[in-house]
# Entry
Amino acid sequence: MNPSSLAPSPEAILALAPTGILRAGINLSNFLLVSSVGDDGAPVGVSPDMARALAAVLDVDVKLITYENPGDVADAAMTGAWDIGNIGAEPARAEFINFTDAYAEIESTYLVPADSPINTIADVDQPGMRISVKERAAYALWLESNLEHAELIQTESLDSAFDTFVDRRLDALAGLRPRLEADVKHVPGGRVLDGKFSSVMQAIGTPVNRDRAGIDFLQTFVIDAKQRGLVASLITKHAADGLSVAR
# Structure
């Protein structure tokens, strides 16, 4: 991996770290992006390392501010709580967050129970079908906007989405492929469908009320991080199987 040669302007630094510290909002609920939390409470994984790499380029200290789910990160966008937020880029969030292009992506698909007549992604969006999903996840927002016939049953957490799928004998569980491939081990005869209904596009965002110099530099940083191999090296470092460098 080659070192970064980026040189942020004073305007970009001010827009991204107005207090002199880069405050990064980190979503703890995606295990591919935050693999663990250290004894000191600091998150470990691809997402926090991307924030640290950005702070190094800006030549400022970094403060990682953790949230239990991406919806909470998004809610804090306009409160001044963070300067950058590492969450999935979705149109529903773009009203108050400016996003870079994605630096990594994760396939979203379905888990179906044993003996299900569902064989393809397209089979799921039919009248009478009920889908369990974690509320406010990026893939849940996509389904809210794109499903035409099936009913979404939204729950507070990944675990409760799985439990609801099993206990209520729903037709499908929506989620990220790596998580579903773990969940299917607890569903005798269950299947994770081939293909995807969407991909969660992991990006870096900054509040819309910041100077454009900030998001413009963030976009340059993300492109550089992909091209020089930083993102790929972090995926390997944290063994984030199921996460890939965004094209």
Q: What stands out?
A: Helices lie at 10-16, 46-58, 70-75, 138-146, 158-167, 177-183, 212-227, 230-237.
